[in-house]
């Protein structure tokens, strides 16, 4: 059934769009929602996200459990057999084989995302949190690019100057890379952090933030291995405004 009832203004709104009732906090203008639900280990279960458009990225984690963070990204695609590829935010794995038990080999819709029976996304009685992202023109962009293995690297168009870029090599076992404009914050001194590793800032020259996207400035395998496919999430420095060239 559809609809949402505000049952608690602090915790969020009850959402009945899916077969599993959820508590959601939604900012549709920012293309972001936080969804809390209890797993039922049922393949084909659905979960309402409240965005009104299909999310392109999902981060799923069971609270109070050591299972990994599961990442759905629309650019990962699926195997020839239809199994959805996923990544793990806290691991350096590549996309490997498909993960049928994660999202039931079903793309999110404008109202729900689907679950398989995996413990990582739908353990029976598990308390899960999901961060859902949909694209908003001028504010966020979620896509993919192919590495060229050259220090004069690939340019990725976003339509805005990024404040934050998160990326991952999907074909090779390498750490996630995270870049922002607050640590040093000028080209090419945009330091890297690695969400899937415990190390601190990496001060190598990796990336330029430009007025309409970002450009790779390194041959490092985690962000520019020749021929490998990479997924990214990018968020704007000045949402919905024209950025100055630098």
Q: Helical proportion? A: under 10%
- Tell me, what's the shape? globular
Q: How many β strands by DSSP?
A: 18
Q: Estimate what percentage of residues fall within beta strands.
A: 35-45%
Main β-sheet description:
8 strands, antiparallel
Order of helices and strands: EEEEEEEEHEHEEEEEEEEHE
Q: Radius of gyration, rounded? A: 18 Å
Strand order of the largest sheet: 1-2-3-4-10-6-7-8
Class computed from helices, strands and strand pairing = mainly beta
Give unreliable regions as ranges.
1-10
Into how many domains do the coordinates divide?
A: 2
* Whole-number mean pLDDT: 91
**Number of continuous helical runs:** 3
Distance between the termini: 50 Å
Pfam families: DUF7483 (PF24299)
InterPro entries: DUF7483
Organism: uncultured gamma proteobacterium HF0070_03O15
Protein name: DUF7483 domain-containing protein
Keywords:
246 residues, five-stranded antiparallel sheet, 3 helices, disordered N terminus, mainly beta
Description of the structure:
Pfam families: DUF7483. This is DUF7483 domain-containing protein. The protein has 246 residues and is mainly beta. It has two domains: 124 residues, no CATH class; 97 residues, no CATH class. It contains three helices and 18 strands. The protein is globular and about 50 Å long. The N and C termini lie far apart (50 Å). The N terminus is likely disordered.
Short note summarizing the structure:
The chain is mostly beta strands. The chain has three helices and 18 strands. It has two domains: 10-133, no CATH class; 140-236, no CATH class.
């Amino acid at each position: 059934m559809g609809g949402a009832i505000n049952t608690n203004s602090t915790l969020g709104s009850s959402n009945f769009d899916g077969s599993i009732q959820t508590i959601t906090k939604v900012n549709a203008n920012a293309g972001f929602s936080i969804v809390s639900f209890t797993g039922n280990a049922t393949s084909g279960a659905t979960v309402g996200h409240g965005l009104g458009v299909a999310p392109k990225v999902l981060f799923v984690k069971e609270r109070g459990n050591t299972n990994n963070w599961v990442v759905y990204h629309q650019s990962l695609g699926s195997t020839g057999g239809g199994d959805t590829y996923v990544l793990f935010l806290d691991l350096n794995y590549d996309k490997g084989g498909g993960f049928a038990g994660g999202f039931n080999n079903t793309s999110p819709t404008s109202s729900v995302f689907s679950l398989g029976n995996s413990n990582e996304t739908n353990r029976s009685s598990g308390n899960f949190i999901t961060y859902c992202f949909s694209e908003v023109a001028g504010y966020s962009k979620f896509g993919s690019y192919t590495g060229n293995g050259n220090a004069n690297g690939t340019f990725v168009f976003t339509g805005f100057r990024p404040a934050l870029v998160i990326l991952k090599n999907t074909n090779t076992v390498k750490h996630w890379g995270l870049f922002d404009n607050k640590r040093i914050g000028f080209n090419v001194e945009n330091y890297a952090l690695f969400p899937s590793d415990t190390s601190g800032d990496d001060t190598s020259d990796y990336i330029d933030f430009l007025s309409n996207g970002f450009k790779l400035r390194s041959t490092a395998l985690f962000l520019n291995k020749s021929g490998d496919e990479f997924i990214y999430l990018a968020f704007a420095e000045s949402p919905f405004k024209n950025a100055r060239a630098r």
